């Protein structure tokens, strides 16, 4: 299990993500996770409310299986101890977190914002609901997220994906440099 | 069942999202602070492999496992939906430090807050479906 005891270097895991996208192409499908948000709405009966969901869930059943697999892969990594590891962020990032009062703890997310204690924090709820909503709304508006535009789209040199990436970074920079300091200091 | 191979591919993807740390809020925040090469290198390597693969598929007219030609449909090149939708997505990505793939992975890892964020993302997709005709595309 040495392969899973520590995180992989970025060039190895980056290549693995590219290979995942190519594997799906060879299986006759297109790599993109945010379609599942639409498909899950369709599965819940959203087709009655809007023609946007009219193609239903059946053509996308394979992608729901892929998302379910991703969920199981996450569970597997928890069993292998991934939540007990500290992410090796830079000293500058660590200093910034201290300024904002955000914890640097083991696991993938800071407990102050996303851990069990955050459930008693209205500000954390506002963060989850607003951020989550924008991720879903924006990914469907742009017709793709980091996987569909960032990896699939750029790999086939799509002009639209380049615009989307510019938007992703513009939004993310504003959230990180303006909204976080405004909310947490 | 043919669907099982997508389940297996998904498990591999989930493991990669954790082992690459792309599913970590810390890495996303650090990326937007320009504090590390980690996420830029990661995406660069993924796109480099993707570009070479897509080039080979087109150059040698490769076929998929079922024997059909691999056709990569173009995405909508209009700047409006991509920039406006992209900024909305980016704001959310910067706020919660997770995009749709990692939201599934983190939920599976047992982070209860990720399940709340995933539910909010579903609400976002549903509302988009209700109002999309009135948005610029």
Protein described:
The complex is a heterodimer of chains A (185) and B (137). Chain A has 185 residues and is mainly α. Chain A folds into 2 domains: 1-83, no CATH class; 121-185. Chain A is 64% helix and 0% strand. Chain A contains 9 helices and no strands. Chain A has helices at residues 2-5, 10-26, 35-43, 61-79, 91-100, 111-114, 122-141, 146-155, 159-184. In chain A, helix 3 packs across helix 4 and helix 8 runs antiparallel to helix 9 (159-184). The mean pLDDT of chain A is 97. Chain B is mainly alpha-helical and 137 residues long. In chain B, 69% of the residues lie in helices and 0% in strands. Chain B is built from 6 helices and no strands. The chains are: A mainly alpha (185), B mainly alpha (137). The interface between A and B is large, with 125 and 115 residues.
What is the rounded Rg of chain A?
19 Å
Give the low-pLDDT segments of chain B: none
What does the main sheet of chain B amount to? none
Summarize the biggest pleated sheet of chain A.
none
How are the SSEs placed, and which strands pair?
The complex is a heterodimer of chains A (185) and B (137).
Chain A: H1 2-5, H2 10-26, H3 35-43, H4 61-79, H5 91-100, H6 111-114, H7 122-141, H8 146-155, H9 159-184
Helix pairs in contact in A: 3-4, 8-9
Chain B: H1 4-19, H2 25-32, H3 38-59, H4 79-96, H5 100-109, H6 112-131
